[in-house]
Each structure stands twice: as structure tokens, then as C-alpha cells.
Amino acid sequence: MGEHPEKRIGKYLLLKKIGTGGMGIVYLAQHAETGEQVALKVLPPELTRNPKYVERFRREALAVSGLAHPHIIKVFEVGEQNGVHYFAMEHLAGATLRDLLKKHGRLSVPEAVQIMIPIADALDLAHSRGIVHRDVKPDNIMSSEKGVFKIMDFGIAHVEEGTRLTVTGTIMGTPEYMSPEQASGAAVDRRTDIYSLGIVLYEMLAGRVPFRGETAVEVLQMHMTRIPESPKLINPEIPGNLAGIIAKMIEKQPANRYASFRHVINALSQAVPEHMRADIGATVREIQPTAKPEKARREPRVRERVILQTSSSVRLALGLSILLNVVLFGLFLRASSRAPEATEPVRPAFTISGQMFAPPAASDGMLFLGAEDGTLYAHDVKSGTTKWVFKAGDKITAAPVVDGGRVYVGSWDRYVYALDIANGGEIIWKVNTGGCVFAAPVIADGVLYVCTREGKVLALDCETGREAWRNDTGSTTKLSPSIHDNALFVPAGEAKALVFHIADGKRIGELTMQQLKTPIIPIGDDAYFVTFNENNDRNEISSIEIAPAQSSTGFRWTALGRQPLSAPSPADEGSH
């Protein structure tokens, strides 16, 4: 941007250039009469010839001047002299949040929340006046000499329900903090600021943003298509419920985010320890809920604000992939905004990332769902909200198991986790199983029995995670174990189940059948399972007698009725 050659603009003497942002050059200036120092924002000469930029610049000045809040930068005067448009605002001599993060890497939970709540409160006021910031990022959050953080640079803000000042086909913002709808060029509302501030909170606690790339286009595409890694995996000190708040703030679909910053503030206020709440509450206008709170490598940086004109030349540069994602995301938002015709009330719904390979677990009005990308969702059925999320190191194909206020889940990252349901999915313990946990574990008498795809079998104390015993099937295990009396039946391969004593893990028997497609289901003295018939064209339910001496006789149930089934007698061999 070209600088102004004048040494004085209006009543202000220009001292030095201190920055650029929001289509303006910012100078440290001094009032000619009072001597007071201000930050003077001036529209560059090359932009004054475009009425749209002039109008946008004036809108920023007028929008901010009407917002009286201790955490929004003050505007003293809006003016124009000889075609030079400017406005004077308070000069903050402190550092930006970006400077703070560069110095410390990441912030503690109390520090981050103490910064976050006042800024959220300030943006809530802006939203109540119909103003959406659209460029919330650490560079636009600055502290005074007394350490009071304020939001600034409303340079690409627009007024809801008013004239949109965004040029058709233009994507404006800073790539690393842009919401999916903003990245796609779709219409935005206040929830785009909620997404952006969620990314800022993520960065404050994790020390980095969730999406990084070599180019702005690459980062924009990630916002539209990728599920971010949980910040708790990067920084285990983040409470599970706080990680859940971040996850809700940065949901891909705007409807799945918090409806307003008031809800964000209420959730954050409950996510911090009791002794912090009074101090945090004193820094904002009002934290008392007005509504029932919702529950909740390489380091390339692409932080510059971008303006992507979707002209034909840039469309070629964007490439087919990004354009396809923009179109699909726009259609997705449009479809999701249509109110479906229904003859009965529509129940709350939500979406998860990736595929589900196993059914959810349910307990006390909660659903626990594992996804292909390794995310476990704790979903409140009644309210339709996700209370918290947990991110494992690899995919989850095993159904979670709920017992005693905990949810137990295994992952392909070779770990089985015990998570505290009431405390936002906090990890109580985790154990390395030595293999991928492909199928759901089972619980009996306070012991968790886990099998891995590689054939490991473990018995873990549910309370502590302490290993009681470990054994090996010698075969691939992709089905869940089952328990009958004092025996643990573990599918091994596709035509065999090994039997272990649950107390010490000693191998006490073996069942061999033609095929095994489901876990063993013990009922009375028989073990039932599903196979294919000899022609391999339909399923059959088969059974083998398993008690008291694991007889070799059994029966197969087919469309023709009950037929004898032979199975070799098990070998009484044990290993520990």
C-alpha cells in the first residue's frame, strides 16, 4: 500500500508508520492541539479512487465508533481532508496476542480463558449491533500497557441485514482463521466470528493453528474438508470439556456451532476452576447467563490477509479440487438451511467426521460414537449437542463400552483408553495393548477384556488400568470376545475360538468350526455363531455345546431345520 506523503492529516501530525491492516495504513500520530497520541488509520491513495473501498473504510470507522466496550478499541474521530479518508483511534502501547504467542509458544489454560472471555464479550456486543468482524485473529487482538486486551481492525466487517460490501466472487479474510463458509465465498453471519475465535483459542492452548499449508488455497481447502486434530492431543493439560468447547466452536457446519458468543462465554465460565471465575467475571460486561448454556513438522505460515478474486485466471490457479469443494460446501450449506417439511417435531441431529464402523454405546441420555478419523463423540441426545470429543491417535473401529461413569474405547493407535464421562472425557488411564484394537472389549466384574487384531488378549482392571494378565491367540482377531461362566471365548482367525480362564488367562480349550463370522454368543450350555452355508450363498446360525466338558457334538440351524454339526474336542493346553 502506498504511504501518504503528508506530514499532517486533519488535526493530526504523523509521527511514524506502525502497521497496515483492514485496507488501511496505521500511523502513530499526535493531536496538534492537545498533544495526545493516537493511532491514525488512513485509506491508501490508490484505494480512494474506488467508491466501494471508500464506503467499506467509512463503514469500519462508523461501526467501531458506535461500539462502547472496554475491550473494543476506541474511535475518537472520523474525517476526510482533501480526499484523504482517516479515523483516529486510541493507541495501544502493548503487544498483540500474536507477539505473546511468538514469545511463549502457547498459554496456560487460565491465561487463555482470561483473554478469551472479554474478547468474546466484545464481539458479542458487536454482533448485537449487527456487525460481524470477519477477520478475528491474534494480530487483531492487542493489549494496552496495563494488559487489557482489545479487539481491533474491523476493516472487512459487514453489517448483517444491510448492504453487503463484499464484492461478488471475492473471498476476504486470513486463511488460517477463516470459517469454511467464508473460505468458500458463501454468505456469513456471526457464527463465522465464533469459528475464527475458536481457532484463536485452539492456537493459544496448542501453540499452533489446526490447519497449516504452503499456500493460502491449501489452507482454505483444509478448513472446508478436514477435521482438526484435538488440541488435547497436542497439549494434554487442556481439560476435556474445554477441548469440547473448541470443537463446537470450529464445527464445519455453522448450525452445529454455538448460536452466539453469549453461549460461548457461559460454556467457558463453567469450564474453568471455581477460583478463576470471579476474576474472569470482573473483566466483562456481564457473564450471567441470559439463556440456558449450551454444553459443550513443517511450520509454513500463511497469516497474511488474502483477497481472492475468483476470476477465470484465479479459478485455474485454484484448481479443480478447491473449486469442487467450494461448490459442494455451498450446496451443503444451502441444503442444510432449508427447513424440511415434517409431520412431527424434528429431533436434534448432528454429524460426525468420517465413517462409523461400529454401533454407538448409550448411557444416561448420552450417545458415544467412534469415527474413522479417531474421534470419539459424547453426544447429548435430548439437547442435540456434543458435550465433548476425544481424539485418539488413529481410527476407531471398535464400539465403545460404558460402565461406572466411564467410557472405554480402543483404537488402531494400539491403546485402550478409560475416559471420565462427567469430566469432559478426561483420560483416567490408557494402556498400550501391543496391537490395533479392532473390536469392542467386554467387561465383567470390574475387569476389561481386550483383544487386538494381532492376536493379543489382555485383562485390565477397570479402575486403574493395571494389567492382570496377557496372552496370545497366535491368529488374527477381528471379533469381540465373550464371557461364559469363568471362560473367555476369543475368536481366532475365521474358523476357531480359543477359550481362556478369566482369572489367570490360562488357555483351557479350543472350539473349531467351519466358519466364524460373528462373536461367540454363549447361551446356556451352547455357543452360537453365524456362518455361511456350504454353497456360500446364505448365512446360518450354528451352535456348539460348550459345557460342561466342551462336547464335540453340536447343531446347525438352517432353513431345513436342526442338523448335526461336528467339531473336534478342544485341547487342554494352557499358556500364560
From TrEMBL:
Instruction: Report the domain of life of the source organism.
Output: Bacteria
Keyword ATP-binding annotated: yes
Mind listing the UniProt keywords for this protein, alphabetically?
A: ATP-binding, Kinase, Nucleotide-binding, Serine/threonine-protein kinase, Transferase
EC number(s) per entry: 2.7.11.1
Q: Which PANTHER family match?
A: MITOGEN-ACTIVATED PROTEIN KINASE KINASE KINASE 20-RELATED, SERINE_THREONINE-PROTEIN KINASE NEKL-3
Which InterPro entries does the entry link to?
Kinase-like_dom_sf, PQQ_b-propeller_rpt, PQQ_rpt_dom, Prot_kinase_dom, Protein_kinase_ATP_BS, Quinoprotein_ADH-like_sf, WD40/YVTN_repeat-like_dom_sf
All copies of the Protein kinase domain together span 12-269
Detail which positions bind ATP: 41
Picking any one GO molecular function of the record gives: ATP binding
Pfam families tied to this protein: Pkinase, PQQ_2
What is the name of this protein? non-specific serine/threonine protein kinase
